[in-house]
Specification:
mainly alpha, 2 helices
Length: 72
């Protein structure tokens, strides 16, 4: 390795916006079991399937039919 690197001509990473962000989710057992079953059928890891499903929901702007009543 060099003792000194010259970054004066460096450019920003054009893919930086695509970087992933780590988050922690707590999922109920039924949801986990569903994706684990899909993983067995497809041979794709369950975490990958969950990420793909969430990405598809975001890309298609899918909305839940949800009526939330905030606590009084």
């Amino acid at each position: 390795m060099r003792k000194h690197y010259d970054f004066s001509q460096a450019k920003p990473n054009p893919y930086a916006k695509r970087l992933k962000k780590e988050v922690t989710l707590q999922l109920d057992e039924r949801t986990v079991a569903y994706f684990e079953g899909l993983a067995e059928e497809t041979g794709i890891p369950s975490r990958t399937l969950i990420k793909l499903y969430l990405r598809e929901c975001a890309a298609s702007r899918k909305r839940l039919a949800l009526q939330w009543k905030p606590a009084a």
